[in-house]
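Handout, section B. The chain below has 445 residues.
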Amino acid sequence: MWRKWGCVTSSAFLFVVPFWYPSLCAWFVFIFLVPLFYAAVRFAITWREGLVWGLIVFGTLLHPLTRVVHEHGSGKFRLLAAALLIMWSAAHAAVWFWATQGLAAGFGLSPVRMIFCWGFTAFCYVIFVDRWLLWFLWPVQGYPFINLLVPLAIDARWLQGVPYTGSELLLLLLILVGIGITLCIIKHQKRWLVLSCIGLAPFVYGWVIHKQYLPPAIIQTIGCIPPAKKRRAMDMAAEIATQLSRGVRKGSFSVLVLPESAFPYPLNEFPEALSCWAMAQGELPLVLGSHRKAERLYNTLYVVKGGRIINYYDKKRLVPFTESMPINLRNRWLQTIFLGTADEFFPGEQARDCECVNVTQDQLFQPLICSELFLGIPQPCPHHPTIPLICMLNESWFMSSWQRKLMILLATLQAMRTRRSILYVSHESALWITATGGVHSLPRL
């Protein structure tokens, strides 16, 4: 009995550790399934083992998200809501174990076929978590930070095969590595390691042919302003104006950027702030995250030049339970639990929002705000399919440094998936991520 539980729990921890320490343990994603496959063949696996496996995985990897619910919600039921989110996610792991074991027993599969069966269902499970874990919401949401390719983005050489194989096939080949190792252990035949070698081939490919690219020249023309420390609206505006003046005096920047919610008030209702910046910035464009108040409240990216709003983009895909309530769960009691006293955002209207923003005379960007970069693969602008993405983020919601690191790693994976560079601007980091996975820091004022 203890050997079975040892295999199941070790598999769960081998799954979790790469997300905590990707620089040292990213390669664990290749082997985390080995003890699980071994237990499935040698012992009777039930939904109970799946539930424990899920509780370990989601209890650790969803901790930053549940902490957001706890800190920004109100009422005594917010702790229960966080616990239910973990239980909901763990229950799907229990279903995965139960269904796979039942399938193997029902068809009387041999050990070899059983391991292949577990490998296929593991692939389906990871895709499900990535895209549809929160299927009770509308619109449906997944949790992409548990994608097995994310820790490997710590070194772009692991993922140079993404443009050629696609992330789904690469994920399937990653699981094939674990299948080959397990069969070698169980059957005592080294020939099964050929499967592992086939699975590793696209990952090793990047280490063989990867070239060193020089940082693009554009990063020297973009200056990042740190978020203001003061909290009152005009005090923040004055602090931003001071930083704008410093950026103008440097003379080497063509645009200055600030992250999501850098000015957490409806900028269109604060002409005094714009006037304050007009004297400081001159004709140097400023791109920042703020809010916009019309009939509703929007999370907005603005382009400001000469103290005037020359363009803006309203976030279309909001984070459920932190920015807004899902359409099918909208009521006052749930809103109090998850949003507390904070104002609720509404999604931007597709027909109104521009598909790209003209930051400078010769530089177009496709705008995204935070979760829009991570939930699914960003679709290109119809008329400008290859322009870079500009993404404003507010990672200050998350206290865990490893969760903030995962956001950068997932952004790197998205850049390689879309083959487009990303200007990544958050409260802690300002980066230019190239289409080949190179990550370069921007100058900070």
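Note. The longest strand covers residues 297-305. Compare this with the example in section A.
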